[in-house]
Amino acid sequence: MDSTRPGGPSAASSAGLPDDVLIVEDDLLIAFDVKETVQELGVKSVRTAPSVARALEAIGEKAPDFALLDVALIREDSFAVAEELERLKIPFAFVTGYAADSTFPARFTRRPILNKPYVREALLAALQKWRETEN
Q: Which of 2, 20, 25, 40 could form an SS bridge with 31, CB 3.0 to 4.6 Å?
């Protein structure tokens, strides 16, 4: 077990997808829909968090293999979660409903970005490339 990842990482699934994905999304309908889609694509465990505090709590309880972070949450952004994931060397991608945004901190500009509304094929591609997004 890797001591830098709380709860230890789960093994990658045989299809090359992460076994455990954390979705940080404040819109409950979108979170439910994306969770369902990710499960249909073959991910074994999918957890959701509607805020930075809940996401950090979820990461502390059990580190995900991969995370999808909605950039703009209610009254906050997800960059604090991105910093924690980066510190723990957990791969992640950002999700946004806005055009490319110059407010991204420079250190995150090379991270994968998925656009909303989610397209199933783009979501699958991000999940299949999850190892490539590692630090």
A: 25
| Residue 8 belongs to some domain of the structure | no
Q: Are strands 20-24 and 92-96 parallel, antiparallel or unpaired?
A: unpaired
Residue 84 domain-assigned? yes
Instruction: Tell me the C-alpha distance between 78 and 40, whole Å.
Output: 25
What distance, in Å, lies between the first and last C-alpha atoms of the chain? 18
- Looking at residue 29, its amino acid is L
pLDDT tens for 4-18 read 444 444 444 547 899
d(CA 110, CA 104): 10
Q: Determine the structural domain holding residue 87 and report its residue range.
A: 20-133
Q: Whole-model pTM?
A: 0.85
